Amino acid sequence: MLNKLALNLTDYIYRQAPDLDIKRKDYMRYGIESILGEASKFILMAALFYWAGVLPQFFFSLAIFLTLRAFGGGYHFNHYWSCFFFTVLFFAGTLFYGDWLTGQTYLSLTHIIISYFLIAVFAPVPSKKRPINDPQVLSKHRRHLFTVLVAETIIALLLQTYIPLSLFASTVTLFTIQLMIGGFSYEIEKKFV
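Below the sequence we write its predicted structure tokens.
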């Protein structure tokens, strides 16, 4: 459905602006399809977490996850609905796990420290559609990821009066788990392709 809508929008744009480079049409269609897919997932999840009464916690967890994912990568699903359901489970998991960790500051800090070490081993995880072969690019992504992670950790420690450290710890922990799954999956696919 999103594919067809993206194709129709791309065709409409090219009819309105015939001077656009036809060679880039597929890139534009892919971009539109990606935006529509992510926007629809975001709207559905926001509605779901609003209904569950945890919308602010979802937004906090989402902000942490997106900034880490931008430089760290992770597991990618091949289909919209499998990605959507995993994403809902991921964020529900961060909220439930964060709730379980509430009041356990030392355990939360332990989870964060263990995640730092695992992220150092596994990140960044390239996508099979966009592999990272240049060691300098890998190093740059890793530096950016750790800069973001350290900054977010400091912010989480400073704001723990307002936002539980446990929610940050659960988000970083589950980000690390999906990162590891993505890394193992990428290595397995690379061997069999």
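The chain has a mean pLDDT of 86.
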